[in-house]
Amino acid sequence: MKIGVSSYSFSQYIKSGKLTQLTAVAKAKELGFDAIEFTELMPPEGVSQAEYAKQIKAEANKCSIEISAYLVGANLAQKDNSAEIERLKTSLDVANALGAKLFRHDVMYGYDVFRSFDQALPTLVAAIREVTEYAQTLGIQTMTENHGYICQDSDRVERLVNAVNHPNFGTLVDMGNFLCTDEDSARAVSKVANLAFLVHAKDFVKISFADRKNDEGYFETRGCNCLKGTTVGQGIVPVAQCLAILKRAGFDGFVDVEFEGTEDCATALSEGLAFLRTII
């Protein structure tokens, strides 16, 4: 396994102007990561996403660091999702310019069109197949993530991948995100480990519904418990167990740190990387 970091993990520094997505490449290398993934490129004014992707790729080559993946949002649960499909194909062209061989897109955010996940499933499957077939022509594998409350439980992720039934489509297994639907991380990872194309190492601290009066800085799970991001290895996610499960399933790809806490991001990422090195 190789340990990468998400550009999203540098959000503190990017929002403050201390870093950009481009300069985050060298910072990731400085911290000791093997790779960096990117979420929704935000180029400076006058620069297209495709051109920015080429700049980032050149910087990664200069720094001798790999680009593990490109991640974008998407809502395919629409009666007419043709525009969203075309947008994802354009995003795949950006991923290709980056040199990323893995591409994650979301599938569904809410019940505004369909009343249930099962009702939306046929629509999702048809769209995902079209996207992944285009990606395959570029040599890129596509995946969904346990993300967005609806398609986040391990059983729904598994059902979606099985329904798409395409060798080019799998899942990004985020070991922390299962907690957002109040699911046990180790049990959930064990159900989808064989479908993993990419892994996110993420950690949270949690308070229960009964303790919500102390929920400052937290966000709600689907079941109204509360989570707050923290340094990998310092929360309640059984990171070592999850990685052992993935290794047993044959996973040997990128494990990218995704940090969402309030601690200084560079310090948290450095500590999280050191923790992962002791495991891997």
TrEMBL record:
Keywords in alphabetical order: Isomerase
Domain of life: Bacteria
Gene Ontology molecular function: isomerase activity
Pfam family, one: AP_endonuc_2
Record carries keyword Disulfide bond: no
Residue ranges annotated for the Xylose isomerase-like TIM barrel domain, each copy included: 25-278
Gene3D superfamilies per record: Divalent-metal-dependent TIM barrel enzymes (3.20.20.150)
PANTHER family per record: BLR5974 PROTEIN (PTHR12110:SF53), HYDROXYPYRUVATE ISOMERASE (PTHR12110)
Name of the protein described by the UniProt record: Sugar phosphate isomerase/epimerase
Species the sequence originates in: Congzhengia minquanensis
